[in-house]
Design goal:
single chain, alpha+beta, five-stranded antiparallel β-sheet, 2 helices, 8 strands, about 35% strand, globular
């Protein structure tokens, strides 16, 4: 009887761990794109790679001033998203010679101060459920 009980408890623990360890999704929507021209590029970062090579990157068309994407298979942790309106469809953010951006951009948490986004201002957590964010340019 003790053996059966031990097997059942072990099985339940294994199943519980398997369910809670499943990767989550992050859905991000830019809600105020100024035109439907071009596309919006989204990049997902953690603290280690912030503003370097993203963990995932996705582009999305714009419909009625909105653009939505979903990052899949995201493990629990702290992340930040940066996105930009690629108006001319050249797959990069364009800048003036003095370094000022020519295209709108935004970051998770919508904390936009002078200069590029900072991880601490844009970070959010993925824990035990899917995350949905609204980002404004």
């Amino acid at each position: 009887m003790k053996l059966i009980l031990a097997i059942l408890v072990t099985g339940m623990i294994f199943i519980t761990n398997a369910i809670t360890a499943q990767n989550k999704t992050i859905t991000a929507t830019v809600v105020n794109v100024t035109s439907d021209a071009g596309k919006v590029g989204f990049a997902l970062y953690n603290k280690t790679n912030f503003r370097m090579k993203p963990l995932q990157s996705v582009t999305s068309k714009i419909t009625e001033g909105k653009s939505t994407i979903t990052f899949t298979n995201v493990e629990a942790g702290e992340y930040a998203i940066i996105c930009y309106h690629d108006k001319n469809d050249n797959d990069k953010m364009d800048f003036m010679p003095n370094g000022m951006p020519l295209e709108n951009y935004g970051a998770s948490n919508n904390n936009m101060s002078f200069g590029p986004p900072k991880f601490e201002d844009a970070k959010f957590r993925v824990i035990d459920k899917n995350v949905s964010l609204e980002i404004k340019f």
